[in-house]
Structures are given as structure tokens and as C-alpha cells.
Amino acid sequence: MVSPHRGRLTAVALFGCVFLYMFADSLQQTVLPLSLETTGASVEMIGLFVAIPQGIGFLSALPAVAHADRVGRGPITVLNSIVAVVAMLCLAWAATGQPLPWWVIGIVVFGLTRLTVWTCILATLSTTGDPLHMQGINGATQRAAAAIAAVSAAAVIATQAWSWAFLLVAVALLVMTPLAALALRATKPPAVASLPTPAVSFAVAGRLAVRNRPIIASSMVGTSCLVVMLVGNAFFALSLVDSPVELAVAVATLLVMRDLTSIGLGLLFRPLASRVDLGRLILIATVCGATGVAFLAVAPGETWVSVIAGCLQGAAIAWCIGATNLLAVGMGEGASRGAALRIASSTIIPGVTSFALPLVLALALGTGGAASMFFTAAGVIVVLGCAGYLVARTSVSFARSIPAQAEDGLTDEDNATEPVAILSDRGTADR
């Protein structure tokens, strides 16, 4: 039996991992396009370099997290975190004026490690304690980290200190490593015989990604949320022609308003999801995300436009984060078993589309200007969000009861024995 004190310490370490990872990932995503622009890279090349770390992660994550589900997530997370630190050091070196291969090495290596780390963290968090309570804190923690990353990115943009930004990302990942070792130390399931092996991880994940309705819904909602974040972090600054200081202020305004809104609404996720079924919450998030992105076309860089757009985008992100994770792991009894592979499976569709999305947005920006890019992104958000909503509404038998059960070694004082209803009672699920 794990003491309550040890359980609280583990929870603190777990949310510390969430904070540091999201700070690092948000900062690199915001700084990478502008640092490449200073090297003379075309907008299409920038789009490709943004797409690589977003799109290739599932190739290494699937076998890695299948292994982690069987033997424990701590060691594989620590190993990938250390490799990600090395990748950021390569980018810091590349930003000093080094040739293109250094950029490619850093971006590819980081892309192959980031999803494994993030999936292991999310799998542990999504199967610990009261799911709605934990996802609310998860969303708020992520957006608090992203808000601080936005302020840090603004300082980097104003000073053009690109190398220091990548070094800061490396430090954040390095500090996260011992916290991950602590938070994920007891995630080995009691029985491993029935769990997929790394050798069959691609086949199992592929079947889940195309046949399992909750995971399909999770994939679509997650991709919709990714578009919202890509526009704010990677492409909003590219649409402006301001001086470095003005550009920094504009980026900080949009991202800080977005993330502060997400913090507040993330903390309200539990009461909202308890009263409004998850399908409707997805639909509301889709409307907010599409409107928040399209609204930027009114006057990019204007403070009042950035404030309104940021608030709408923040609402979309806050609700999508919780919905995506609950859909991915919410299988009722035994949800914690194989949770990392289930979450990784839900990233296959976003991973594949991530190769195309940045290139599509970059092409829209290069050929039609900022308004064309914003409206293109809004259209993609509507299509993906509505598709996710429709699939979620017809795949609810698993979600009538998501028991709040902790994995071995991870306790939470709010653990409940009664199920939490998150979707209306209609339809059938593809198990």
C-alpha cells in the first residue's frame, strides 16, 4: 500500500513533468520558424521543418510505448528525454550560423523522441485518480507552461537570441528527466502477458487507429486542437511584418491570452464535463477554435483582435485536451492496461496529417497571404472537430463509466469507486 504522502509526491512530480515538457515543446515550436526565417529559409521550407517533429514521432513511439506498457514507463521516458536534450543542443549550435544538416539532425532527433516522452506522461496521468479532475489540472498545467513559454519566446524574438532559446528548452527537458523517473517509476502493470509487444505494436495501433471509434474520435479532436496551436505558435508570427519588438508584443499578447484562458477553463473541465456530455463539449470547442483562428484575419497584430482570438482559441484548447485523452483511454475496467499504446495509437492520424498541415498552411500564407492561411486553418478545424463530434456521439458504451482508478503505486485522495458519465447514453462502441 502506497502512503498518501508518497502518492501526493508522485502527483506533484507528474504535473511537474507536464509543465516542463509543455514549456519546452511550446518554446521550440514558437522559436523554430522565426529562427529558420533569419537563415533565409523559404516559407515552404519552414513549413516542412515544422512538420517533421510533429509528424514522425509515432514511428518510434509505437514500439517504445508498447515496451513501456509491459515493463514500466520510467526508463524509456528518461532515455528519450536525454536524447531530446542532445537534439536541442544540436539546434542551439545550428542557430549560431551552422549549415543546414545541423538543423535537420536536431529536428529529426527531437521529432523521434518527443512523442514517446509525452505519451508516457499522458498515459500515467490519464489513468491516475479521478479522470475529470486530473484532466482539468492537466489542461491548466499545460497552458500555464505554454503562457510562460510565450513570454520567453517574446523575449527571444525581441533580442533575436535563437541559440539561447534552444538551450533553455534543453535545460527544461534535463530538469524534467529526474521528475519523470520519480513520477513514472511504478507504472508496470501486474500482468503483462496480454499486452502487445513492440513487434506487433504497429499492427495493433493501426487497427485501433482505423477501427476503434473512441480512438478515431480522439485522433480527430486532437488534430483539430493541433491546428489551433500550430497557427498560434508557429504561423501567426510569420504572418506579420512588424519590427522584432512589435512582433514579440503581438505574439505574446495572442499566446498569453490564449493560455490564461485555457488555464481558467481547464480548471472548470470537471464540472463542465459532468454536466455537459463530452460530445457537445467537443462541438463547442470546435466552434471556439475555428472562430478564434478566423478572427485573426480581421487585423493580424492588432491588440484587441489578438485578445479576442486568444480567448476563443484558449477555450478550444482547454476542452480539447481533456476530451482527447479521455476518449483515448476511457475503456472502463482495465483502462490503465496498455494506456500508453492507446494514446500513441490516437496520434497516428494526427502524425500523418501533421506532415501535410504545416505545408498547407505555409502554402496558403505564401500564395494568398495571412487571411488565406487563417481561413484555411479555420476550415480544417471545423471539418476535423465536427467529424470527431459525430464519431464520439456514436461510440459511447465505453464512456458511460470511466472509473477513477489509479495504477499500482499511484494514489489519489479523490479516487472514486463510482463511474463518471461523460457522454450521453446512445449508440454502440467498437471495442
Word description of this protein:
75% of the residues lie in helices and 0% in strands. Helix 9 (213-235) runs antiparallel to helix 13 (303-329). Mean pLDDT is 81; it is low at 331-336 and 396-431. The radius of gyration is 20 Å and the shape is globular. It has 431 residues and is mainly alpha-helical.
Number of helices: 15
Low-pLDDT regions: 331-336, 396-431
User: Could you tell me how far the N terminus lies from the C terminus, measured between alpha carbons in angstroms?
Assistant: 32 Å
H-E string: HHHHHHHHHHHHHHH
- The Rg value, from CA coordinates, equals 20 Å
Q: Give the beta-strand count.
A: 0
**Residue-averaged pLDDT:** 81
Could you give a short account of the major beta sheet?
A: none
Q: Helical residue percent?
A: over 70%
Structural class: mainly alpha
Strand content: under 5%
Question: What general outline do the C-alpha atoms trace?
Answer: globular
Short summary:
The protein has 431 residues and is mostly helical. Helix content is 75%, strand content 0%. 61% of the residues are buried.
List the helices and strands and how they pair.
Layout: H1 4-37, H2 43-55, H3 57-71, H4 74-94, H5 100-126, H6 131-159, H7 162-183, H8 201-211, H9 213-235, H10 244-267, H11 269-275, H12 278-294, H13 303-329, H14 339-345, H15 348-393
Helix pairs in contact: 1-2, 1-5, 1-6, 1-7, 1-9, 2-5, 2-15, 3-4, 3-5, 3-14, 4-5, 4-7, 5-14, 6-10, 6-11, 6-13, 8-9, 8-14, 9-12, 9-13, 9-15, 10-13, 12-13, 12-15
